[in-house]
Write the structure tokens for this entry.
Amino acid sequence: MSMPKGSNTPVPATALRVELGRRHGPGVPGARASALLLAAGKVRSAADFVQRDRPAHPSGAVRHEGERTRGPLVVDTLSVDLPRIEGAIDRIVFAVSADGGAFGQVPDLYIEVSDPATGRVAARFDDVGASVETALLLGEFYRRQGGWKFRAVGQGYDNGLDGLAAAFGITAKEPPAGRPAPPARPSRVTLTKSAPSVSLAKQGGTSGVMRVNLNWQARQGFPGWGAGRGGGPGGLDLDLCALYELADGRKGVVQALGNAFGSLHRPPYIHLDGDDRTGAVESGENLTLNLDHRRELRRVLVFVTIYEGATSFAGLHATVTLRPQHGAPVDFALDECTVPSTVCALALLTNDGGDLVVRREARYLVPERGVSPQRTVDRAYGWGMNWTPGRK
């Protein structure tokens, strides 16, 4: 049963899972979840502000475990080990900040506390009643008489993450005397169906390298689980790949298949970092692009194939993050797969006068019988390459 706003309930002083979820869809703003560890109502330093960009508190007691799509919902999960919380910390606040709108536009917003060992729900608050707020305090743990309680808060700010941070003692550093402050940029850009594209130049991503990361979580028992050669959780093998077309017309593919790992400092200026089977956040599969040579890239299509371990993406929760060295990260979640797809086009990067524009594709494709996933992507996007069989 959901708690009313302002109410509280005891929670066991143990390791707990905290989920902050909301429904996604066209026109729904993105959201970022965070936790603030407070001593006398304030953070002691920026390290007490745990979020996706800084996912672990130095004590190890609070971790941001990543964002996942679960059917119609997007869920951020944080783990909290209450016995490891430092004695100086008396409150842990859980908040969300909106990207591209207010929380009155975000349906089914909730926070839920559960025991990860048993799955038992200890507390849930979903009657938030948000309207114009762009940052919200959903709930908090606080010490009381030697134990811990959870309170349903549901209070917010109309000036976003800046207002939230300032309220708990996080202030921006002042620029040196005589030097103007750099232009304000969003801390993260989330692409959606209604806002699928972004210019890297406008986010500051004009040089250095950019890492493209795919991480995933497969639900045991999803259709096709274990049907491939690997079988079981350890056998699921996804391959992150990229079709490229250079400014001089040369075309090719970067992929583990055939050991075509590419190169970062010579054409195609794209390199596949490795082949991962875990899907872990900040591990998973990674491609790196050299943005210093962005003018030599006409277009790049990033896609993923199932090499073994499953017969479709159904039941696979995946997130794509593009992290430029000098710009705001760009991310998006894949929609639920409802077709027997073994290849998904993730993102298309096109050169617009030297600027790379990133477009969210999130497009599941179904290969015809006898047609490889790579050839299927090629046909869908008109790449026009000749394909031969290959192996890892």
Observations:
- The chain has two domains: 8-167, 189-381.
